[in-house]
Amino acid sequence: MTPKPPAQLLDGLDSRLSISLAILGLLYPICLVIYRLIFSELAAFPGPKIAAATAWYEFYYDIVHEGKYLFEIEKMHRQYGPIVRINPYELSINDPDAYKLIYVSENKRRTNGLEGFINGVGIEGSILETVGHDIHRRRRKPLEPFFSRLGISRLQDMLAEVVVKLDGRIEALKGTPTVVRLDHVFSAFAGDVVGRICWEDKEEFLDDSDFAPEW
Predict the structure, then answer these.
(1) Residues 136, 130: contact at Cβ < 8 Å?
(2) Distance CA 83, CA 46 (A)
(3) Contact, 203 vs 175, CB < 8 A?
(4) Residues of the chain with pLDDT > 90: what percent?
(5) Nearest Cα residue to 73 out of 94, 56, 96
(6) Per-residue pLDDT tens digits for 140-185
């Protein structure tokens, strides 16, 4: 039997490899959908099967329909009840009684952050992008005094001053044809509060005639 030339052997290997990769490319999404619908720990929760099978359903409403998935979730709750699976990884809970079961102290249950909420933000390694409970706790510890009851009470006079300034700006616009965007107003307010905490001398966004929309 005459042996095949090396070039033919390589061609045959490439052909088999291409076929194998094509089969894997077809099987992987099929197996992934089966896992999400049947074997996932969220499989028992109600909701549209297409939402449980793929995140493209959420993508369609948020991107194609410009952020309308929130309203679609409301429809799901009316159809399926207070707990709905809204994508392969998440549940939506519309039940005030569940609040104390979900938001508990670390003594009762340690909870890691959800990577999907932080991926792509661009501040890797910061406290905001820390997923693990224990390392997040260590990074948060130096900041806790600033958010304690005593820490906030020390800022009360400053907060009142910024609120009075905001009220004066709104009052000055009363009776004028000026259209005021409240998202710009409260972003400027928040920016001034943070600025006064972090810097001694800074530009005041509330002084801007349009409430600093670039902020």
Answers:
(1) yes
(2) 7
(3) no
(4) 51
(5) 94
(6) 899 888 888 898 899 999 999 999 999 999 999 999 999 999 999 9
